[in-house]
Amino acid sequence: MPRFDWDVRRARLIKWCVRTSKAPWNTVLRDAFIRVFPFLLLMNGFLLLSNYLAITSYADWVPALQQASKMISASLPIVFTFYLASSIATVYALERAGLTFYALIGVLMLSVRQGETKVLSLGACLVVVVFISVGFALIQRVMDRRSNLFVVAILQALISFVMTWALVLLVIKPLFAVSKAYFGTLVVSIVDGHQSIELVYMLAVMARGLLSFMGFHGHNMLYELFEGIYALSPTYRSVDVAFAGIGGTGATLCFFAGYAVLWYRKRYLNSSVVKAAPFALFNVNEILVYGYPLAWNPFFFVPFLLAPVVMAGAGLMAFHFGLLDMPDQIGHWMLPSAMQVFRISSQGNVLFMLWLAAFLCASSLYWWFLTIHYRVESSQRGQMAAAEFRVTENIDIRGAESAHALDRSVRYQEAQIYAAKWFQPDRLKLVYQPLISREGQMVGVEALLRTYDGQKLGTPAELLEAVDVLGLHEELDRLVLANCQTALQEYVNCFRDVNVAVNISPQFAATKDFTEFVIELQRELPLPITLELTEGSAAEDIERLCADFAHLRETRGIRIAIDDFGSGYSSLSYLQNIRVDKLKLDRSLMPAIRNPVSIEVVRALVELAHALDFEVVFEGVETAEQLQLLSDLGVDTFQGFFLGRPMLAEDLVVYALKLGEQDWQQYMSR
Fold first, then answer.
1. What are phi and psi of 379, to 5 degrees?
2. How far apart are the C-alpha atoms of 657 and 494, rounded to whole Å?
């Protein structure tokens, strides 16, 4: 059975959405139902059954849910239609058809707003379907062993729960006892749905909008303003109706406004829409059931979706320990949303403060969760950007260049997926390939990057391509150098005279703090260091590179090498402008044993390098005959699979010991 790759599936989905965005309406709708409808039918049927069982299981002790369980059967057609429309909108969330389905969902919510029992049953199903949808994604991730964020999500829920209860027992309960006479009436009136809710809710909306604006992008402020204006419409004067309205058409209007902004700027897609939405709409509503966990990274939503569970658990424990009396009156909401907007006349102020504490805890932890998702630790050197999807091209779908622009957008999307997949500390490993001198001694190693999927090492082709697209060369080089320092730190005594060669990009070499970074690295890793530039890389800022490299060579003894010499262009200009220590001849120059022309080419290059006082290293030595021929041509150092494959640091120690016990002449003649 082939392995299900979530990232590949999402990349294909994005390509499909881009391709269908230009198709006629009939093709779009037909393609949607042919591809999606069977899967949605099965999934939503299972979800409806799960919702019914979940709600029925709570009906014994929550009075409001007893009524919900009786009415859910009558509401199944409406609920199923809602699920179906929202799931199809998943695929077309950024397409014309998606906006149509959003409008349909808004109409459905408006049609059931007047019927309290229908709103109740619909809301109850929404809560359960969100958890089940994300649960599928979590199970897939865990089974694939591809992410440790599941553990982080669980820890976030536990921390949020503990922090909530610490605030309740240590802060909120004593504070309430002191301030009840001053603030009790106001808080009770707010929870009971008096007009004071308007002012408080507007302040809350503005505060959340400001936080989102500071942390993400300005588009989110527009969403918040639309939501706040809709919530404070003169039509709605109670907390119940306001929340019900926001849960349906209010959120829909917010997204219409967001897409209007994107259309105005003529951008096809902006990740701020996805990143900001869950943080902005922190109440459980249908915005999460639109299917983002199915089309995007589900871990955006894990802490957010766990927040109601934390609040519900905190509320139930408050009942259990006697902090709150079991309510005899519950409004038009259900578990776990009831734990957020209880209408309890007796102790509503305590529960409101409990909800506020849980909200603040979950908000702060959710911010932290998003941060660690996009930024990974780089040893002890702080954090670095893993990937941030950004589309800088303006896209006009009516223009002649629309296809190319959309293709570029897809490449950015795929690059973001691959970077997020591999740009993590536990997904990247450094291996070291030995460099052997003519005398048979290991005089150096080259640090090479490999990806690690938890079982085996792989080539970093996908990651390097993503780095080129996203411009993360500097971040990758910093990560490689830092990991090299960390991996070899405990083996310094074994490799006192071994030179460590590391490839660097021109983008990193041209940064202002490049010199300081390398000097600091050498202080922490007291081994000889060689910085390798690939041929063609120094042309961008050759004067600056010359000055920096000269300073490093003279003051720190760091050696400079040109890698893959002979495979690119402008090689002689490098030799004229940059004082290097080594030339690493590319494997493409490997002379054929019986080809005198290729042999003379290599001989001439070696003689030229020696005349300029350069050490010559030849890459790609794979046979004893090649090793003997290159040695006869005067090559100083050899590198290749014949002498040693790339290996981990601990294996390199064993290799060095065995190499010292071997006779070099026997090694060459094997």
1. 55, -125
2. 10
Angle at 12 between CA 372 and CA 429, to 5 degrees: 45
Residue 285 confidence (pLDDT): 35
Amino acid symbol at 303? P
Backbone phi and psi for residue 415, each to the nearest 5 degrees, phi listed first: -60, -40
Enter the DSSP assignment of 590: P
What value, to the nearest 5°, has the Cα angle with vertex 146 and ends 461 and 291?
105
Per-residue pLDDT of 612-655, as tens digits, reads: 888 999 988 888 888 888 888 889 999 888 888 888 888 887 88
Cα dist. 277→115, 223, 301, 389, 502 in Å?
28, 8, 10, 16, 42
Nearest Cα neighbor of 483 from 381, 375, 373, 374 is 381
Q: Which residue has the tokens 């102790």?
A: 347
Tens digit of pLDDT for each residue in 538-590? Answer: 455 555 666 677 778 877 788 888 887 766 554 566 666 667 788 888 887 77
Any residues with CB less than 8 A from the CB of 68 and at least 6 apart, and which? 55, 59, 117, 120, 121, 124, 334
Q: How far is CA 152 from CA 24, 357, 389, 476, 513, in A?
A: 44, 21, 23, 24, 33
pLDDT tens-digit series, residues 474-488? 778 887 877 777 777
225 in Cβ contact with 259 (< 8 Å) = no
Helix (H) or strand (E) holding 432: strand 428-437
Half-sphere exposure (Cβ direction) of 4: Cα atoms closer than 13 Å: 10
Q: Per this entry, what is the length of the chain?
A: 670
Could you tell me if 303 and 366 are in contact, meaning their C-beta atoms sit under 8 angstroms apart? yes
Portions of the chain given CATH number 3.20.20.450: 424-668
Q: Is the pLDDT of residue 602 over 70?
A: yes
Q: Which amino acid is at 343?
A: R
Distance of CA 386 to CAs 363, 373, 416, 468, Å? 22, 8, 9, 13
Phi, psi (rounded to 5 degrees) for 544? -65, -45
**CA-wise closest residue to 228 among 248, 198, 255:** 198
CATH superfamily of domain region 424-668: EAL domain (3.20.20.450)
Say which residues have a Cβ less than 8 Å from residue 207's Cβ, sequence separation at least 6.
none
Would the pTM of this model clear 0.85, i.e. be above it?
no
Tokens of 650: 């601990």
Contacts of 70 by beta carbon, 8 Å cutoff, 6+ apart: none
342 in Cβ contact with 69 (< 8 Å): no
Q: How do residues 110-153 score in pLDDT, each as one tens digit?
A: 333 334 334 434 444 444 444 444 444 444 444 444 444 444 44
76-108 per-position pLDDT tens digit: 455 445 444 444 443 333 333 333 333 333 333
Residues 6+ apart with CB under 8 A from 530: 444, 499, 500, 501, 502, 558, 559, 560, 561, 581, 582
CA 179/CA 100 separation, integer angstroms = 50
User: d(Cα 351, Cα 168) in Å, to the nearest integer?
Assistant: 10
Q: Is the pLDDT of residue 259 over 60?
A: no
Q: Residue 293, preceding bond cis, omega within 30 degrees?
A: no
Question: Do 540 and 508 meet the contact criterion of CB atoms below 8 Å apart?
Answer: no
